[in-house]
Amino acid sequence: MKKVSPVFPAFVLAAWCAAAALPLPAQEQRAFEHIEMYCPSHFGNTYEVFGENEMREALATLKEYGCQWYSDWFDMECCADLATNKLNAFSTVLWQNIRMHYRLAREMGLKTALIIAPNWTYYDQCRGEWKAAEGDRIYGKQLICPSIPEARQAILNNYDRLFSDLARDGTTLDALLFGAYDWGGCACEKCHPWIRTFIILVRDIYEVGKKYFPDLKCNISGWWWKPEEHQMVADWVDENAPGMVDTCFLHIPYGSTGPADVRLPKGTKRGAFVHIGYSRNDQPDEYGQFGPIAAGSRIQTTINNLRESGADRIVCYSEGVYDDLNKAIVCGLAGGKFDSFETIAADYAAKWFGTDEETSRRWGAWLTAWENPLDVDTDASGAALAELLESTPNQSQDNWRLWQWVERQKLYQINREILAGGDDWTEERLALVDQFWAQREKIHRKIWGIGVPVYIFHPEFCKMPWYDSWAARRRTVKEQAAEPEER
Ligand SMILES: [Zn+2]
After folding, report:
1. What is the tens place of the pLDDT at every residue in 116-134?
2. Which residues, at least 6 apart from 73, have a Cβ–Cβ distance to it below 8 Å?
3. At what angle do helices 400-420 and 427-441 cross, to 10 degrees?
């Protein structure tokens, strides 16, 4: 199954090619100029289902970690046009929640950006004659063609509505961040080349935004762009809208630790889009499918590479509370307050688990070892965890930061037993898989309380190594059990 999901996640490279973390001198590093956390409210993830108090706590914590900017997007998937729908429609409720997030972020003094996938739109605007053509890196059922004048106007009207709602709430947007792909694009003849159509549409939406927010900045994300597309955008901007693009957040492919060197428009600042929601792209731990994650080494190498290359602006892509430790790590390193992910992980334990210095250090080592989840010796990590818990004061029931790791340890213990049980589906091994799903459900529902079961939480989106074999056996058993007329 192709791993895709907006905005702008999954492009999987075959090989894991992260370099080893570079040792740094223990001295304060210069802080990055721009540290933004992009927290999309979609997929039934924690941001989408959070209540107001939970969101306030999440934002306050982000600020403590050193984050300066908050951004969200209004994912119109399964949403009806706000201008025509009824009060109780999903889109209305979702948009109200996102407006609440922005209001809280502003109250806390965070700067705010809105992520925009320009031609991704409401399902009831996807009329047959407006549909975008699919093509290279262009797919998704809710894309319309911006070269059709009425469709283009609908897009501009949609954003006028979003901007006016935010302005009416008293939310001042500081920036828009536009992505061309995942999801976005139209492969029709009129839109070709898409990247040029895209940047002209960016200019038009940006003009609408400036009516409401005169100081608004226009940023772009290079997610999935080819170098020649950067060249084309740079040429167009320099000729037609010089100075329009404040910052370009460049694409770092899965498994890589830095962006390609591409041409940007004159005066555009160099930044990067840093995915903190996975540890290693050759192991199945994305989106919180299998519990919380740690990616200290990869993030540290990335931040070091960016700092050395002068790209001191980042938008971090987060998909929920499961990457909370990575948020602390990326903000702590980019903010210049810490010089190693190990120190941050120890500080994290002291802050949230209430542990003394020595126990915090051991907790930090335990947490960050999960960067290679399938390699963890779960017997040894289980024994170490039991010892750590004996010296961990903050074991209140609602300390989800602690319990999500305890429950992940149990999940991987079961997984290791499944993997160690050979290839045959014995009754014992099948029972272990049942335990595995029950444990995963416990993390999702009892620890995180995530909601709508959208596709990224489908068991086939991220798979454990035994999944295909198990699913095939289950299908065979079902077929054998079915009456002939039911087949
Ligand atoms: Zn088109």
Report:
1. 999 999 999 999 999 999 9
2. 7, 38, 40, 41, 42, 114, 115, 116, 117
3. 160
Residue 120 Cα to ligand 1 middle (Å) = 12
Q: Is 101 helix (H, G, I), strand (E, B) or coil?
A: helix
- pLDDT(460) > 90: no
Copy the structure tokens of residue 83. 């201008």
Q: Are 148 and 191 in contact (CB under 8 A)?
A: no
DSSP reduced 3-state for 336: coil
CA 181 to ligand 1 center in whole angstroms: 14
152 C-alpha vs ligand 1 centroid, how far in Å? 10
CB 112 within 8 A of CB 62: no
What distances in angstroms separate CA 85 from CA 82, 91, 203, one per listed residue? 5, 8, 28
In order of 139, 141, 189, the CA distances from 134 in angstroms are 5, 9, 11
User: What six digits make up the tokens of 418?
Assistant: 């499944």
Amino acid at 453: P
| Ligand 1: centre distance to CA 160 (Å) | 21
Q: Say which residue the tokens 């053509």 belong to.
A: 133
Q: Give Cα 53 to chain centroid, integer Å.
A: 22
User: Which three-class secondary structure state does DSSP give residue 218?
Assistant: strand
| Confidence band, pLDDT 50/70/90 cuts, at residue 453 | confident
Instruction: Judge: domain 34-348, CATH 3.20.20.80.
Output: yes
C-alpha 422 to ligand 1 mean position (Å)? 52
Determine the distance separating the centroid of ligand 1 and the alpha carbon of 195, expressed in angstroms: 11
Centre of ligand 1 from the C-alpha of residue 264, in Å: 25
User: How far does residue 437's CA lie from ligand 1's centre (Å)?
Assistant: 43
Quote the mean pLDDT of the chain.
Answer: 92
Q: What is the mean pLDDT of residues 289-295?
A: 96
Helix locations, 289-399, DSSP H: 296-309, 324-334, 341-353, 357-368, 378-390
Beta pairing partners, 80 = none
If you measure from the C-alpha of residue 305 to the centroid of ligand 1, how many angstroms do you get, rounded to a whole number? 38
What is the CA(131)–ligand 1 centre distance, in A? 8
- Between the CA of 216 and the centroid of ligand 1 the distance, in Å, is 28
**Backbone CA torsion sign across 224, 226, 231, 233:** negative
Q: What per-residue confidence (pLDDT) applies to 106?
A: 97
Largest Cα–Cα distance in the chain?
Answer: 73
In sequence order, what are the residues at sequence separation of 6 or more whose Cβ sits closer than 8 angstroms to the Cβ of residue 17?
255, 256
Q: Tell how far the Cα of 141 is from the centroid of ligand 1, in angstroms.
A: 14
Residue-range domain boundaries for the chain: 34-348, 362-473
CA dist 287 and 304 (Å) reads: 25
